[in-house]
User: What shape does this take?
Amino acid sequence: MILHPYTEIPITSFHKVRDNALWLRDFLSKQKQPEIQIEKGSDLELALSISEKFPNWAEEEKDILEELKTPEILSKAIGLSFLASILSEAARHLSFKNALRLLPDLTKSNPIMHEASESTQPRNAVFELEVASIFIASGLATETFNEPDVRVHVTEEVWDIPCKMIYSKEPATLGDRVEEGINQSLKHKGDFGLVVLGISNRIDHENFMPLFDENEDIRGSFRTPEAAYKLLGEKALMPVIDDLFIQASNPDRFLNGRQSSKFRGILVIVHTVCLIGKAPVTLSRTALIGRRDIFRDSSIYGPEEGLCKRFHETALNIFAK
Assistant: This one.
């Protein structure tokens, strides 16, 4: 594990960024699906090329951090390293074979979840791949389908888990996507349903590396990780949670979820990149909004908190290795 010398939070090294990129390029080249082609000029090829050059850039005499600390470069490099770390760890487990069907989508759109991008079906599928791979890396038997996107087996319990990327800041659109996810989770025969929301497309990533001087390309950094995580909560998680509560205050919203105790809540995931001191780090946070919070239903308490905690800790531990 590599730690920031002052904050003692996990960061990554330039060599680890390169090694993860090389692993991913090699891993994809060995797949038998003919549609897996890393095309020149694609988002994936750009992220791989940037990441593979990091150690050489770092050996130059000039202050490499001043050259590299732009949101575009850091997001692509650290975002790709995060994704490659997850896939590398998941590939150690038998049930990773159930997620291989999603690999071609890595090459068809921007696969980096640490930056905003346009909505495409392949990008949404990459999010499903990320979610499934984290569950797989946590040691849980996991499957992927057209619906539900992910199915997770926890001892004798089965979770049906639709995954929804959110691109709009409109509360009604957010509510529509959650409602769609709830209904998808209830259509299947698992024991529990959980909707996973990815909101990295909904946030302004410039807030986490603000430009103070355009001519000198001077960008802001955080003194402590606590300040960065606090801002991520305030700017990313809380607006989504507030919008969900507003939507749920309408008794006709999420009606099927209200009526079925199978639906257990919403797991919100957000990623971005920032500087803490001069160290580039990945910021990732999750938040579980359980049914007892959404519907003020204190009569039902289940294993969703343990499942989501396992998911969160697995994601952090993978990147810290």
